[in-house]
Amino acid sequence: MSIKTVERQLRRNSQQIAHTQAELGVIEEQLEHFKDEAETARIHALVSETPISERTHQRAARHLIAIDKQREQLVARLMQLEGHQNSLLDQIGREFN
17, 22, 68, 81: least CB-packed within 10 angstroms? Predict the structure, then answer.
């Protein structure tokens, strides 16, 4: 593969890493919000012992699980992109050696 092609792929990959990192930052903020919300709903359900508060708690817990799953997917994607970046950098390094 030509060095120009590898450099182009490296630039594109770097942009994807930056975008994924930004997305991950947003998701992590949302995760903290939903953790707080789920904990508040859990305490409210324990104190009030009503079906409505229990459903609210369950809904908040489901949201927390969904956001956490999204975070895990982004972390996996970021690891994949970083691995690809390392591979591209290795190719460039071999060209210069």
Answer: 22
Q: Which amino acid is at 51?
A: P
Q: What distance in Å separates the CA atoms of residue 10 and residue 73, rounded to the nearest whole number? A: 22
Q: What digits encode the pLDDT tens for the residues 23-73?
A: 999 999 999 999 999 999 999 999 998 999 999 999 999 999 999 999 999
SS3 labels along the chain: CCHHHHHHHHHHHHHHHHHHHHHHHHHHHHHHHHHHHHHHHHHHHHHHCCHHHHHHHHHHHHHHHHHHHHHHHHHHHHHHHHHHHHHHHHHHHHHHC
Q: What is the pTM of this model?
A: 0.84
CATH of the domain at 71: 1.10.287
Tell me how far apart the alpha carbons of residues 72 and 77 are, in angstroms, rounded to a whole number: 9
CA gap 40, 85 in Å, rounded = 41
Note the Cα 53 to chain centre separation in Å: 30
